[in-house]
Amino acid sequence: MASEEIEIEIGVDGRVTVRTKGIKGEACRDYAAAVAKIIGRIETSEPTAELYETPDVVRRVIDIHNRR
Amino acid sequence: MSTVLIVAPVVIANWSVISAAVAAGVAAAGFTTVAHTAARVGQELQSDRAMTREEIDIPDSEILEGAAATGETVVAEKDGVRAVFSRDARGALKVCMEGSGVSKSELRRLGEELIGRVTQQYVYHRLVSELAARNVNIIDEQVTADQAVKIRVRSW
Q1: Which residues 35-54 of A are in CB contact (within 8 Å) with B?
Q2: How many CB pairs under 8 A join A and B?
Q3: Domain residue limits, chain B
Q4: Reported pTM
Q5: Which of B23, B72, B75, B112 would you call most buried, defined as having the most Cβ atoms within 10 angstroms of its Cβ?
Q6: Binned average pLDDT, 10 residues per bin, chain B of 156 residues
Q7: Containing structural domain, residue A17
Q8: Could you tell me which residues of chain B have a Cβ less than 8 Å from any Cβ in chain A?
Q9: pLDDT tier, A50 (very low <50, low <70, confident <90, very high otherwise)
């Protein structure tokens, strides 16, 4: 499984970019928002393909169901 | 690929935290911090009327009330330009830039650069302390070629 990380970049102008990597589903937005809440207010949000990917835990439940 | 948020920082802290961020931020911009009391700075400003001045408010900032916040300043200088950071009447952080032989637009540019650096320092220290309080593991920290600070943490 890919490493689940959050990258926070603080520019010289003080603006902050929060990127999640390897975190699938809604959790990626939750983690990014939790970090953003520490710092200030969210200006823009760009969901990417990983947001719409099925988290691994759901895939495992389906696999168990299909084996039966 | 990832989720990306752009966050505008909100600077809210007591004077001791903010003055520490100011000292670190101005140093990063090549300024030297000079210690002054509020009364002495006021006298110096009045005596040198040939100086060009530009005052800049720092948006989304608040210096929490306290004895240390009243009348305190952080003064920094570089190449004949002086920056005076203080708390305004509304409780926000402001910087007064002054210099002789320097245009207002140049003072504003320098002031905005300082504000950016101070904000960067404040955000970095707030983030690191909050992450530590939550036992979040910081994997890596680095300063990029364009002086941005990058922190990588594991999800928790």
Answers
A1: 35-36, 38-51
A2: 144
A3: 11-153
A4: 0.83
A5: B75
A6: 83 93 95 67 52 92 74 91 92 94 95 96 95 92 96 87
A7: 5-67
A8: 1-10, 60, 113, 115-120, 122-124, 126-127, 130-131, 139, 144, 146-155
A9: low
H/E stretch holding B106 reads helix B104-133
Q: Count of domains in chain A?
A: 1
Q: How far is CA B40 from the centre of its chain?
A: 21
Contacts of residue B148, defined as CB under 8 A and 6 or more positions apart, other chains included, come to A9, A10, A11, A12
Q: How far apart, in whole angstroms, are the C-alpha atoms of residue B54 and residue B69?
A: 22
Terminal C-alpha separation, chain A: 25
DSSP B137: P
Distances (CA, A) of B10 to A26, A40, A59: 25, 5, 39
